[in-house]
Amino acid sequence: MLVWGSFIGLIIIFLALDLGVFHKHEHVIKSKEASIWTAVWVTVALSFSGVIYWLFSNNIIDNPTGLTPNDAVLKYITGYLIELSLSVDNVFVIAVIFSAFKIPAIYQHRVLFWGILGAIVFRAVMIVFGVALITKFDWIIYVFGVFLLYTAFKMLKSDNSEFDPKKSFVFKRLKKIYPITASINGHDFFVKRMGVTAATPLFVALVIIELTDILFALDSIPAILAITADPFIVFSSNILAILGLRSMYFLISRMLEKFRYINYSLVVILAFVGLKMLFSHHIEIPEWVSLTVISVSLVGGIIFSLLITEEKGE
């Protein structure tokens, strides 16, 4: 419990420094700043693999799956890369939501901060639930495997139809249960006028981002559980990837068109992880193979996107 408490305390410190110190004054986050913060979060996450090695080599943390220190590090990095890659879809949806509700760039970081905070809580619950299921029911891994294959197939067959947050079920229900104003009042989530408290577009965007993240977690968490059922590795790799999502959004949201073929990389990753789950009781796939497949898929998708863009520009 000391390790878990220390890790959660560290996350709270990161969040407090983020909003209370480094982003105390609201401003538009430019690409240069976003790239620096993305590098910082990736460095922090990858450096944490050293902590993972230390914890498992000194038996400081419970090791229910009997991992060696080297295996624990490989599984952590693999899980982190899976979550990071699947976050690309989150970035696209977040960009659409901000555009639909006309959220000024200067307030987007504030919305994402609270969105990430909520995502950490929801994902912690889902991870505990998912680990418990896999630990208690061996057959549930086949259900997760089929679900990931179905998700990969659905992503492959996607007709690229535009997602309209204002036509979503969540927005329609929110309008019925709480007054919503179309005007933005600084960074406030609520505004009181003529004795009536109404939600601003910032709050509406926050709620929709929060709920869509839960839907994305239905893909990413089973994918990480295919790598390991160790709860601390699953939780730490997932949360550290989530912390870097905000800076990643500001870095790549302006370049989404350049990387429009990255979805094929996600299809390959989800399909691979789904198949790994289905054959987990029959074939043991080394972690370096999983790490290689994920890395090559991501790099391949980026390179392919850039090459196609250049050809079209000629």
From TrEMBL:
Subcellular location: Membrane
Superkingdom, natural source: Bacteria
GO cellular component, one term: membrane
The keyword Transport is assigned to this record: no
Coiled-coil spans in chain: none
Similarity annotation: Belongs to the TerC family.
Designated name of the protein: Tellurite resistance protein TerC
UniProt lineage: Bacteria, Pseudomonadati, Bacteroidota, Flavobacteriia, Flavobacteriales
